[in-house]
């Protein structure tokens, strides 16, 4: 039953994405990248769930629906505003939650699952999980936030290793040398950096290190450790002993928390 529900939602999602294709069936680069990102968030969600956790079938369906719809507003965002910068367009978590209702994507699932998916999607991109999120919705919010961050780390690594340069992926930031000490200090203090405080691509890469403090499931830490995601990001940054130290600290956090539930 749960498989069929997911399949119908999957088909509805793709039918919606198809409305953004041109006459030859192609999506523009930024939209295609977001479609690939969504598929990756779905795969990573399955990987985290496969690594224990004792989730029930209903939880698994909920988490998979969160992954599928978390960025559904990104297509409209690119079409209307030509950017992934929320500050220059709309809050894409809020808008994705709205679209789930507006496009009737989840009308055939239970109210319990639908409200959880809508809330988790709404908060997936927020600086922190809001204190007023219903407790029952917290595991889904944590799952989609983890899978999203891990997928973005993979995407950023692929993007910069491949020397691609589409401005949408690097949040329209300039690719200038160096980075500010204040961003490094914020990350070293284990605090997240706000996107609006980033001045260039190096600071964007550096800010990713703060995410090691914003993962939730042990399986998420384990995946980041196994794929050495932060080692790969560090390799994309300039020579600087302070960054080597940051990487050492990050790797030890990952291995310490990999065995937690
Ligand atoms: Fe997102």
Describe the structure.
With 261 residues, this protein is an all-alpha fold. It folds into two domains: 2-147, Hypothetical protein af1432; 173-257, no CATH class. The chain is built from twelve helices and no strands. The chain has helices at residues 2-18, 29-50, 57-69, 74-81, 92-102, 111-123, 138-161, 181-188, 201-207, 218-226, 229-234, 241-257. Helix 1 (2-18) runs parallel beside helix 3, helix 2 crosses helix 7 (138-161) and helix 5 runs antiparallel to helix 6 (111-123). It is globular. The two termini are 28 Å apart. Bound molecules: fe (ii) ion (FE2). Fe (ii) ion is lined by residues 70-71, 92, 124-125, 148.
Q: What coarse outline follows from CA principal-axis ratios? A: globular
Q: What is the averaged pLDDT score?
A: 93
Major β-sheet, in short?
none
Helix coverage percent of residues?
Answer: 55-70%
Low-confidence stretches: none
Query: Given the structure, what is the number of helices?
Result: 12
Distinct ligands: fe (ii) ion
The percent range for strand residues is under 5%
Using brief descriptors, characterize the structure shown:
mainly alpha, globular, binds fe (ii) ion, single chain, Hypothetical protein af1432
